[in-house]
Write a structure and sequence with these properties.
The complex is a heterodimer of chains A (211) and B (388). With 211 residues, chain A is an alpha/beta fold. Chain A has helices at 3-12, 15-27, 32-52, 58-76, 81-86, 102-113, 127-137, 152-164, 182-188, 197-207, and strands at residues 89-94, 117-120, 141-145, 172-176, 192-193. Chain B has a single domain, classed as Alpha-Beta Barrel (TIM Barrel). Chain B contains 14 helices and twelve strands. The relative contact order of chain B is 0.14. Classes of the chains: A alpha/beta (211), B alpha/beta (388). The interface between A and B is medium-sized, with 28 and 34 residues.
Amino acid sequence: MKMEELVKAVIEGNAPVVSRLVVQGLDEGLEAATILSEGLTPGMFTVGELFQRGEYFLPEMLFSAKAMAGGLEHLEAIFSTSDLNSLATVVIGTVKGDVHDIGKNIVGMIMKGAGFNVVDLGVDVQAERFVEVVSEKNADILALSALLSTTMPSMRDTIGIVAKAGIRDRVKILIGGAPITSEFADEIGADGYAEDAPGAVNEAKRLLKLS
Amino acid sequence: MVKSEGSMTRRERVVEALDHKEPDRVPLSMSITINAYNNLKHYLGIDLEEDLNPGRWTEVPIHPLVAEKFGLDVIWLPTGKAHKKPRQSDDPNKWYDGWGVEWTKIPLPGGGYYNEMTCAPLKDATVHDLEDFDWPDPFDPGITEGVREYYKHIHNDTEFAILTKFGGAVFEQAWYLRGMETFLLDMVESPEFVEVLLTKIAKIQMGFDEVLIEATGEYVDILRLSGEDMGTQENSIISLPMFRRMVRPHLERLWAYAKEKLLEKNPNAKIMLHSCGAVSSFLPDWIDMKLDVLDPIQPKARGMDPFELKAAFGDKLTFHGGIDAQYVLPFGTVEEVRAHTRKYIKALAPGGGYICAPVHNVQGDVPPENLVAMRDAVEEFGYYPINL
């Protein structure tokens, strides 16, 4: 299996080819972690760049993410505990009162593609639930999403409850969503903000000091 | 000629602005959700009992007395409801619209609620399923019942310009029915499914336009074609080539039909597109498709600078909106609202072609003081000639 072919298939969103090449790579004895870091991740990284440059739009990015996710399923089935432990863990969800999930879903997909272990708690998530899962998974990043101005206060509340639970210094908090700004992130004491999904990956890497 | 203050009715003011002429002052328009509406009425000291029936987006029609007291020039009027009852839910917090989309009342952190789509009925549908789907019937007699009389009353007995929506979105309705992620993937994976779905929807929306324009057209000043959101905060949702290939033909037929039929009834009427987000790259196409009015000019979206838009498209498009709902209205101070409204009047009002309005149905987190500050800024800065 040629890694550049896998990268190309992810960029093109060619799900059957991605799936076939991942299986082929595993059959040839490649490590799951290698296929992720040298095949799927660079592919999705390029997709993110194309999106940020305005050459890809949401449909094309979703198409590539779906192809990537198909490949990743083969890998996840055989990831060992040590493989998983080597990945940074992101707990993600939309905050209490907010049920809009496409932005959150795309961030989750792109983060998976970038090699994060993503735990998606879905929509309208209570702050206490975020606290519970961040603790349980020993998460590195808590990523909060809100689309509405009316649900932005839930982000502030969530951060307050994370702090109250005594785990604020153990997790970096990243926020995003249409009305969110870096000023708002600063104001409510979040660690980071990104305006789109590829930006969220970069911001998460910056916060965790990953290359 | 610039007319002196007080010499125009509210409707004349709007018609002049739509005609790219300078009226006495910039007209004001607004749509609002139930929580914000009740707050505003309370703030204005209006003690008016109303049986409020919020629409899908939790929006309510503004009573003419409230519109008059607040100072709106445009009034948004509703249409009738189908006699055929939509599917019922056992859950009192859930309901279905005429398209079979499930909605849920979601409590908001600050109190009140917002209606949200929670289930897309065509999520797993095939092309074949589209034939058998229980589509809404635009020819249901309930759709036009009492509508003509009400529009005529508002037209004859008040000064307001009338803004309304009949057949709505095509592209956006498709993702309500299919789920947004599924539909956007369809656009790459299953273009034939998209074609059939958009054709179905556009035909139904054209039916709504047909019966409602027939019933009310001579009273309508602005026909809003949609909520047809095509922008995200940063860019268009789909590329321009994809829009041209897959969406434009449907919208072009629908808009041309609505406009032609409306102009037969009222030669001064205009068609308006509501499309949120960063949509500037689509504007030349929409102008080519004979669009008259663009709403909402979302300030925080990329590439939507009002000075640049006015310079590039101001001779072709009237702009409706501009007053930011992502920061200024809900979180800004009264002074920030004033400065923001001034900026949009300065950018968009010269030469006419601007109707000032919040960019979205005003939400419950917007203080009434900020709405009044917007209104006051229009009074303070909006009289022609604009010298800001």
